[in-house]
């Protein structure tokens, strides 16, 4: 995820979609705070999406998540205007999609917006290759050129050799690869993936998710992924957008949403997640109780710190505040008896450390036989904190208790 | 209570049309009669045995079924043997012209009805009327416009056989899964691209079922139209009825059945061959 202040690739601004013939009336009621059910009763209009705003940055995967009927599919269809929004705007590269003429819109769909569908939506009368060629054919490319491009796309998704088969002869996973290739063949900036893997078996789904992550590492597309499966969302999404009843209830990274759910709905939604996969070293670490500086402190002061804080080892940092080793209480007291004044000789420099976003699941085996607290070291080499067995278990137990409450 | 003058109004309208426009339709009739004659003569130009072999060959090529080809061969030979060859050719010519006309009007209307709700709402009730109106009724106005004979028969046949072509074309296009149409849209297809690359190919089996129905209805109407001088196999049946000749009536009837079976089997295969 980029932290830079770039303009977002997609900006959805106060988007509302109301289905039904009295949509303007319903829109006014909605803006006056009237509830969804009452609007349906009074005007016969269904609120699909209600005042949704979010951004997607270039190269980012944003997963829009919610139960069925929460408006996530409607939301994504508003982005390429398969469904016309009732109010609000959508900007792609700062261009207002909602104000385009139908010709301009078709051009944007062809050049910038690839789409992958839940039930694959392959054309049954076309071969795998002809399916992958579809968008290029609409673009009016010569047939040899488009076959060439389609073949590259098919190769990317691992379907080389299947180009002359018909979709009906392919398994579900392979069919969705064709769907993906069809979108990729156009080399769009943005991929809209509507429950793309939901119709697949769990194992195949997991494979496809891995494959998408691999492809994304190479291609850096901007992806809006719709899913009702939280595990999938956590695996794929750089950020998640959580929807309920057409409205967005929370936007954030997986960890933000899991550790700090905005309301009961989100909390319930996330309660069955395996926390060890979501919590990271950073979120379960504690502040180190004491540290010594190599140039300023000797064994004696190190020992005193340890006695004061009742720990049996202490980390040592250098002038730049980088962690360079640790000293145990035993070694320090022996050094004191030998009247040594420097930490150099007694310092262990080959200690195990982890980076802040290491998943908690990976911490458990590392810590199993570790005689000292696990240091969490940032990319700048500074000690961010330590993970002690107690803090890890406490963090996991804490989440468990909240969920069962 | 006064009687609503429905029948007399319709009569007045048709009278009006006949007085003002029949010169056009009669001129059209003269031209069409020539076209029909040339077509018939063209089909009769080949000696029957050669024609029969060619047709049997074509049915085999279209269906890849020996059984159907053999039936065609034997069936047509039987017709020739019964002395009904010229009548059969005449019937086939009428069916050919009538159904081609019905299809070239019906299929586009079906497409329009499928894509446009307004058109659909107008077309559906008209189709209901067309399909439930007794076939004989169409024969009556056909005569003042086109005179007694084959052109009037074709007119009545076109009207009678068109509804299934419209209905099934419309149905076939509406049955294309919504997600596929959405997909074509998402990939920036325009209306024509969507129609020719997606909707028509997927609707083809259903449309072909409509073509089949149209041809079958056309065949039955062409026989009925013998009453207004369409001749052909129907003419043979009609004459047999008037003279109470049971034998020759059945012979002509069998001839019609043979032609119907051949057309039906061939068209069914054309419709389902593509996968």
What is the structure about, briefly put?
By secondary structure, chain A is an alpha/beta fold.
Which features would summarize this protein structure in a list?
heterodimer, A: CBS-domain, six-stranded mixed β-sheet, four-stranded antiparallel β-sheet, 40% helix, B: 275 residues, mainly alpha, MetI-like fold, 11 helices, globular
Q: Reading side by side through the largest sheet of chain A, how are the strands ordered?
A: 6-7-8-3-9-10
Largest interface (CB within 8 Å) is between: A-B, 26 and 19 residues
Shape summary of chain B: globular
Describe the global form of chain A: elongated
Return the structural class of chain A. Answer: alpha/beta
The proportion of residues in beta strands of chain B is: under 5%
For this structure, the CATH topology of the largest domain in chain A is Rossmann fold
Overall pLDDT of chain A, averaged? Answer: 86
Tally the helices of chain A: what do you get? 17
Domains of chain A (count): 2
**Helicity range of chain B:** over 70%
Major sheet description of chain B: none
Q: What count of domains describes the coordinates of chain B?
A: 1
Indicate the low-confidence ranges of chain B by residue numbers: none
CATH architecture type of chain B: Orthogonal Bundle
CATH class annotation of the largest domain in chain A: Alpha Beta
CATH-wise, what's the superfamily of the largest domain in chain A? P-loop containing nucleotide triphosphate hydrolases
In percent terms, what proportion of residues of chain A is strand?
15-25%
Description:
The complex is a heterodimer of chains A (405) and B (275). Chain A has helices spanning 23-31, 36-43, 72-79, 102-111, 128-139, 143-156, 172-184, 202-219, 230-236, 254-259, 264-269, 275-278, 281-284, 299-309, 329-337, 360-367, 389-404; strands at 10-19, 46-56, 61-65, 87-92, 95-96, 113-116, 190-194, 222-227, 239-244, 247-252, 291-293, 313-317, 323-328, 374-377, 383-387. Chain A is of the alpha/beta class and 405 residues long. Chain A has 2 domains: 10-112 and 188-273, Rossmann fold; 282-397, Roll (CBS-domain), CATH 3.10.580. In chain A, strands 6-7-8-3-9-10 form a 6-stranded mixed beta sheet, sandwiched between helices. In chain A, strands 2-1-4-5 form a 4-stranded antiparallel beta sheet, with helices on both faces. A 3-stranded mixed beta sheet of chain A has the order 11-12-13. In chain A, helix 1 packs antiparallel against helix 2, helix 6 crosses helix 7 and helix 14 packs across helix 15 (329-337). The longest helix of chain A has 18 residues, at 202-219. The radius of gyration of chain A is 27 Å and the shape is elongated. By secondary structure, chain B is an all-alpha fold. Chain B has a single domain (23-273), classed as Orthogonal Bundle (MetI-like fold). In chain B, 87% of the residues lie in helices and 0% in strands. Chain B contains 11 helices and no strands. Chain B has helices at 6-45, 48-63, 66-81, 85-115, 117-132, 135-146, 150-174, 178-186, 191-224, 232-243, 246-273. Chain B is globular. The A-B interface holds A 77, 80, 82, 106-110, 113, 115, 117-119, 121, 123-125, 134-135, 137-139, 166, 182, 186, 192 and B 177, 179-180, 182-190, 193, 197-198, 201-202, 274-275.
């Amino acid at each position: 995820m980029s932290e830079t202040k770039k303009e977002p690739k997609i900006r959805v601004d106060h988007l509302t979609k109301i289905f039904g013939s009295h949509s303007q009336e319903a829109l006014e009621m909605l803006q006056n705070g009237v509830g969804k059910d009452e609007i349906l009763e009074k005007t016969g209009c269904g609120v699909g999406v209600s005042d949704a705003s979010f951004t997607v940055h270039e190269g980012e995967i944003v997963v829009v998540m919610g139960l069925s009927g929460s408006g996530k599919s409607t939301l994504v269809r508003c982005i390429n205007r398969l469904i016309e929004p009732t109010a609000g705007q959508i900007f792609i590269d700062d261009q207002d999609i909602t104000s385009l003429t139908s010709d301009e819109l078709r051009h944007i769909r062809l050049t910038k917006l690839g789409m992958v569908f839940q039930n694959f939506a392959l054309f049954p009368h076309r071969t795998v290759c002809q399916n992958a060629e579809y968008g290029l054919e609409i673009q009016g490319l010569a047939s040899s050129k488009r076959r060439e491009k389609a073949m590259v796309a098919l190769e990317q998704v691992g379907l080389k050799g299947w180009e002359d088969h018909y979709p009906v002869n392919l398994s579900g996973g392979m069919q969705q690869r064709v769907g993906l290739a069809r979108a990729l063949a156009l080399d769009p900036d943005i991929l809209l993936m509507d429950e793309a893997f939901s119709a697949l078996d769990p194992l195949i789904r997991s494979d496809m998710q891995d494959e998408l992550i691999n492809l994304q590492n190479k291609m850096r597309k901007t992806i809006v992924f719709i899913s009702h499966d939280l595990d999938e969302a956590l695996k794929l999404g750089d950020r998640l957008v959580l929807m309920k009843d057409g409205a967005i209830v929370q936007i954030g990274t997986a960890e933000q949403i899991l550790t700090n759910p905005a309301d009961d709905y989100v909390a319930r939604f996330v309660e069955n997640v395996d926390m060890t996969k979501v919590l990271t070293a950073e979120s379960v670490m504690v502040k180190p109780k004491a540290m010594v500086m190599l140039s300023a402190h000797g064994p004696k002061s190190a020992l005193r710190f340890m006695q004061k804080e009742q720990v049996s080892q202490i980390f040592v940092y250098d002038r730049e505040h980088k962690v360079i080793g640790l000293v145990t209480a035993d070694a320090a007291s022996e050094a004191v008896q030998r009247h040594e004044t420097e930490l150099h000789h007694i310092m262990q420099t080959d200690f195990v450390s982890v980076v802040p976003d290491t998943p908690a699941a990976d911490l458990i085996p590392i810590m199993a036989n570790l005689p000292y607290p696990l240091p969490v070291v940032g990319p700048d080499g500074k000690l961010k904190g330590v993970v002690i067995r107690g803090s890890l278990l406490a963090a996991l137990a804490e989440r468990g208790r909240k969920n069962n409450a | 209570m006064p009687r609503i003058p429905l029948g007399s109004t319709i009569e007045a309208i048709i009278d009006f049309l006949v007085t003002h426009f029949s010169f056009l339709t009669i001129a059209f009739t003269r031209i069409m009669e020539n076209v029909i004659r040339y077509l018939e003569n063209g089909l009769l130009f080949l000696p029957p045995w050669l024609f029969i072999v060619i047709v049997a060959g074509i049915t085999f090529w279209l269906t890849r079924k020996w059984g159907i080809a053999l039936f065609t061969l034997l069936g047509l030979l039987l017709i020739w043997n019964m002395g009904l060859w010229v009548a059969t050719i005449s019937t086939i010519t009428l069916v050919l012209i009538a159904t081609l006309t019905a299809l070239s009007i019906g299929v586009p209307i079906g497409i329009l009805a499928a894509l446009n709700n307004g058109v659909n709402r107008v077309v559906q009730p008209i189709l209901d009327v067309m399909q439930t109106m007794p076939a004989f009724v169409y024969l009556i106005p056909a005569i003042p416009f086109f005179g007694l004979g084959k052109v009037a028969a074709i007119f009545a046949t076109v009207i009678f056989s068109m509804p299934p072509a419209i209905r099934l074309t419309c149905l076939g296009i509406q049955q294309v899964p919504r997600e596929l149409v959405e997909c074509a849209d998402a990939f920036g297809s325009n209306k024509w691209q969507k129609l020719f690359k997606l909707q028509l190919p997927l609707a083809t089996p259903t449309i072909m079922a409509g073509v089949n129905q149209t041809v079958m209805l056309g065949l039955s109407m062409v026989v009925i139209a013998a009453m207004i001088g369409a001749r052909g196999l129907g003419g043979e049946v009609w004459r047999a009825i008037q003279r109470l000749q049971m034998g020759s009536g059945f012979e002509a009837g069998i001839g019609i059945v043979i032609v119907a079976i051949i057309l039906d089997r061939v068209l069914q295969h054309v419709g389902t061959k593509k996968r």
